[in-house]
Amino acid sequence: MAHCQRVLLDAQLTWTVVDDDGRVLDAVEEYLEFGRQSSFSVNTIRSYALALALWMTHLALHHRVWDRVEVKDLAGFAGAVRRGTVGRLDVPGPSAVSEATVAARIRPVMSFYRFQQAMGHSAAAKTMFHHVLPRQGQRYLSMLAHIERRAGQERPVLRLPRSGPRELPVVTPGAVRDLLGAEATFDPATSSWSGDLRYRLLWALLLETGLRLGEALSLQHRDWRTGRGGTASLQVLPRPHPFGLVPKSGARRVFIGSKLDRLYGDYVWWLCERGADAAIAEWDSAYIFCNVHRAPLFGPLRPESVYAHLSSLKRRLPTLPSAMTPHWFRHTHATALLLAGTPLHVVSRRLGHRSVQTTTNTYAHVTVDAELEALADWRDVIKGWGEVDA
């Protein structure tokens, strides 16, 4: 059996795959190390390690080894994942997980074998991919035919069904109002905040910017460019983090409104009232979201602490969905921008997507709704023309 194991490597949190005796599986570790050197995030490494641990377990149960597999092994693994039976002998049964989950387990396996192929283990990968030659003798040539791979290309032997666009969860205005009010409230009589202003700022920041949680927790005070006669902004930069957080979308600048900027100013004073100005030697390189109740005092806040805090709030506030996560704020931000008519390329750049196609694929349901709404408006406009049958 194989297990996904959390480890500290060079004082950084990461994940690997071990057997029942605690020995690292060398082939998998080589691939995961390649991912670490390629700036894969900690969560990506964990997801890949989990998928490969399930794959190695599946092979062990069927007395197979990773470098001598057949197509039926991969198909059997996909079926076991689909039924939720990985880790024990496969039994017939209905689908237990979504196709997206199946794909999330299969793709790391295929990526692992592509890596092995690049490392010279072509025998291990030859059954995972088939060679597709370009079509010969066809009359029609596409516009980009001159850059077509003349030698063909490698394609996975297992083609997973594509799932249609799914609606992503969003946070309703009422839930946002209850959440922010539960964190901290402002008293105009005393001009002071009561509650945990740190989390109110975090939720407001995620909602207004669409940042991922890891990107928000990686922000240092020097990254917050407060407005001084201009528009305030945040600078998202990839840099080493004590907990291995990596801005998945790379460096970018995100503009913010004046209300959020003022809230950050109040938060800085809130920290100083708790002794941050005396405890923090280098303020610019200190993390914005930090510990205020536990050691190390004013050290960077862990993602696990944020999830635990949100879980406690969901038990107290009935308006918060039980499945809600910090990533819902990112979906809410993108959905609001698209429904407001913001150009797709602007939304894509703000979210830090590598291409507009990523934004289109992720929020296809939103753009479709927006197109239908625009069509309805168009029909209302032309209805009075009398020249077009609407």
Low-confidence stretches: 385-390
Count of helices? 15
- Indicate how many domains the architecture comprises: 3
CATH class categorisation of the largest domain? Mainly Alpha
Report the sheet-strand fraction: 5-15%
CATH architecture descriptor name of the largest domain: Orthogonal Bundle
Overall description:
The protein has helices spanning 26-37, 42-61, 71-83, 99-118, 122-125, 173-183, 197-209, 213-217, 258-273, 276-279, 303-316, 327-339, 344-351, 356-362, 364-382; strands spanning 2-9, 12-19, 129-132, 153-156, 184-187, 192-195, 224-225, 233-236, 252-255. A 3-stranded antiparallel β-sheet has the order 7-8-9, with no helix packed on it. Strands 1-2 form a two-stranded antiparallel ribbon. It starts with a strand and ends in an 8-residue tail after the last helix. Helix content is 46%, strand content 11%. It is built from 15 helices and 9 strands. It has 3 domains: 2-134 and 149-156, no CATH class; 173-324, hpI Integrase, Chain A (Orthogonal Bundle); 333-382, no CATH class. A hairpin with a 2-residue loop joins strand 1 (2-9) and strand 2 (12-19). Helix 1 packs antiparallel against helix 2 and helix 7 (197-209) crosses helix 12. With 390 residues, it is mainly alpha-helical. The radius of gyration is 25 Å and the shape is globular.
Descriptive terms for the model:
single chain, 390 residues, mainly alpha, 3-stranded antiparallel beta sheet, two-stranded antiparallel ribbon
